[in-house]
Amino acid sequence: MKKCSFVEVGPRDGLQNHSRVLTLAERESFVRRLVADGVLEVEVGSFVRDDRIPQLAQTAKLVSKLQKFKTSKGRQPFFWAFVPNVRGMELALETAIDGVGLFVAASETFCNKNVNRTQAELLLEIKNILPMAKAAKRKVRVYLSTITFCPYEGAVRPAKVKKLVRNLIDMGVDEVSLGDTTGHATPLDISKLLAEVLKVAPAGKITMHLHDTRGLAMANVWESMRHGLNRFDSSLGGLGGCPYAPGAAGNLATEDLLFALNSMGAMKSTVDLNKLTKTSLWLEKQIGAKLPSKVLATFRKQS
Amino acid sequence: MKKCSFVEVGPRDGLQNHSRVLTLAERESFVRRLVADGVLEVEVGSFVRDDRIPQLAQTAKLVSKLQKFKTSKGRQPFFWAFVPNVRGMELALETAIDGVGLFVAASETFCNKNVNRTQAELLLEIKNILPMAKAAKRKVRVYLSTITFCPYEGAVRPAKVKKLVRNLIDMGVDEVSLGDTTGHATPLDISKLLAEVLKVAPAGKITMHLHDTRGLAMANVWESMRHGLNRFDSSLGGLGGCPYAPGAAGNLATEDLLFALNSMGAMKSTVDLNKLTKTSLWLEKQIGAKLPSKVLATFRKQS
User: Fold this and answer.
1) Of the candidates A189, A212, A213, which has its C-beta nearest B215's C-beta?
2) What letters, b where the CB count within 10 A reaches 16 and e where it falls short, cover A87-113?
3) For A240, which of A14, A175, A262, B184 could close a Cys bridge (C-beta 3.0–4.6 Å)?
4) pTM for this entry
C-alpha cells in the first residue's frame, strides 16, 4: 500500500467557514502547534481583502512568522495559502509562502454563486497566475470543487471533471485537489470519477478533498487509495465546511484520517495523534465550539 | 452490484445501550413507525429478566402486538429478538417472534467481562438453542463480537474469527453477524478478515455489524460489499453503542447506511429516508438526546 500524505487545511478552509474570528496571535499558535505535532503541510490563510474574509485577515503578517516553525524532529514544513486572483498572487509573492491554492468549480452555477465569476474567467485567472508562480518557484494547487454534485445543478458528470483536470494539468499546475464540496459522493461515485480522471492525470497529481457531511469521507478515502491516490486534504477536528453550499458541513477530520491511515500503516509522516488531539481541544476553546471529529470524541472520553 | 438488506437493531441493541428507559407503549410506537417507514427487519427486544435490562423489559408483551404491523405497502416484516440462553429461548418460543439473535465473542476476555461466561459455555448454549429454534421454525443469527479488536485483549486474529464462523455454520446457524464492537476496524482489517471468513462461509450467511466510533463504518460497509456481502445491521440515528467496551459508541446509523446504498442503487427495500428521519426526530424526543447520524443532521438543518 502506498504511503499517504495530507495537507492540513484547518487554518484556512476551516477557519474561513467558522463564525468566530480568531486573532492573528491565535492563528499563529494554531499553525505553530500543528507543526510541533508533526504536521508537514499546512494551508495557513488567504490573500484576500481583509474586509472580505475577516477570519483570514493579515495572512501576509502570519506568513512572515512561519519561517521559524519546525516540527519536533526539526523538519521544515511546507506552507500553502489561498489566492483568489492575480492581485492576491502579487500579495502572496511579497511573502515567503511556499505554495498557493487556486479555485475553480466543475459546476458553472457554483462558480457564479461562490465567487460571482464564470468558470472561464476562473480558468483564465489560473492561467495568468501560473507563470507568476513558476517564476518565483512557488507550487500551485487548484481546488476543483463540486466534483460529483453541485447544490444548484445536481449530479456532475465525470467527463466534465476529466476535461477540467486535463486542462489544468496541461496548464502546468502541480496538483489538483478534487473537492466533494457537499459531501454527497459515494465510493461508487468516486470510483467512476477516478476511472475517468486518471486517464488524463497521473495519480501523483491528484489530491482528494473530502467532506464527511453524510459519513462517507473515509469510505471515499479508501476508494481513492484503491485507485492509487495517496494524498488528502483534511481539517483539524473537522473544522469548517462550506457556507455557500446549503446543508454542507464538515471537512474530513485530520484525526479521523490519521487514525485510519496510521492503523493501516499507510501514513508517511508519523504525526503523534495523541499530541494532535491536545491541539484540537485547545482549538475548541479558541472557537468556542465542539469539533465534530469522531476520533477526537474517543480521546475526549478518555481525558 | 448486489442489492443489500439490513436489520434495524435500534429497538434492541440501541435502546439497551441508552440510559433513558422507554415505556412499552413508546417501544411499540418505535417499532410501528419503523415498519410504517418501510423497514422490513427489526430486532425488537430481548428475552432476559426484566430487572437485568429494564430498557428491554416485557419484550414478550411487545411481540404479542407486532403481528398487525405491516409496511405502508402491505408487506409483513420480520422480527428478531435477542436471547441470552436456553431459558430465554423458552420464553421466546412462547411468542410469535420470527427469529432469535444469540451472542458470542471472538475474545475470551470479552465473553467473560460482557456476560460472565466462557466462550465455550456460550458456544454450548448456542448448540443447545439451535434444535429448539429449528423445531419451532425460527431463524437463528449469532452476534459474533470483537471481530478485529477487543478492548481488553487488543487485536484479534482473523484465523480466530474464521474458526468460530466455521463452527457456527457447521452447527447450522442461519446467519453470523460479525461485530466490530469497538469501532476500531479499518477497511484493511475488514478485507483481511473477510478473505479468511469467506473461505469457510458463503457470503449470504455473513452480516456486518459495524460501529462508527472512529468514522469508519461506511468505509467498512463498502469494503464488505466489495467482498460480496450484502447485509448489514444498523441502528436508527446511530442509537446505542456498547457500554461494556470503554470508548466505544455509535452503531452505524440506519440513515447513513440508507443514504449511501440508495445513492448507489444498492438497496433492496426502498425505505422512504425522508419519512424515516421523522421517526428519528420523534425518537430523539423520547430519549431526550440528539442522535449522532450525519445524514440525520443534514435533514435536521433543512427542517
Assistant:
1) A212
2) ebbebbbebebbbbbbbbbbbbebbee
3) A14
4) 0.96
Q: Amino acid identity, residue A264?
A: M
Which of the residues B192, B298, B300, B302 would you substitute to probe the A interface, choosing the one with the greatest number of A C-beta atoms within 10 Å? Answer: B298
Query: Of how many residues is chain B composed?
Result: 303
In angstroms, the first-to-last Cα distance of chain B is 33
CATH superfamily for A5-302 is Aldolase class I (3.20.20.70)
User: What's the confidence (pLDDT) of residue B271?
Assistant: 92
Question: Span A261-277, mean pLDDT?
Answer: 92
SS3 label, residue B206 = strand
Residues of chain B with pLDDT under 70: 241-249, 301-303
**Chain A residues near residue B148 by CB distance under 8 angstroms:** none
| CB distance B63 to B96 below 8 Å | yes
Angstrom distance (rounded) from CA A118 to CA A26: 35
Whether B150 is a known active-site residue: answer no
Instruction: Report how far apart, in Å, the C-alpha atoms of A261 and of each of A3, A5, A41, A212 are.
Output: 9, 10, 17, 16
Among all chains, which residue has been given the C-alpha cell 433513558?
Answer: B20
| Beta carbons within 10 angstroms of residue B163's beta carbon | 15
Q: Which of A1, A214, A223 sits opposite B295 (nearest CB)?
A: A214
Q: Which of A185, A138, A143 is nearest to A164 (CA)?
A: A143
> What are the E-state strand segments in A86-205?
99-105, 139-145, 149-150, 154-155, 175-179
Cell output for A49: 481583502
Return the C-alpha cell found at B231. 447485509
Q: Touching check for A227 and chain B: CB below 8 Å?
A: no
Q: Where are the domains of chain A?
A: 5-302
Q: Collapse the DSSP code of A279 into the 3-class scheme (helix H, G, I; strand E, B; otherwise coil) and give the result.
A: helix
| Whole-number Å distance between alpha carbons of A273 and A295 | 10
Q: What is the pLDDT, as a whole number, of residue B245?
A: 46
Judge whether B253 and B237 are in contact, CB under 8 Å: yes
In this structure, what C-alpha cell is assigned to residue A36? 510541533
Q: How far is CA A112 from the centre of its chain?
A: 21
- Interval A62-93: pLDDT, tens: 999 998 888 778 888 999 999 999 999 999 99
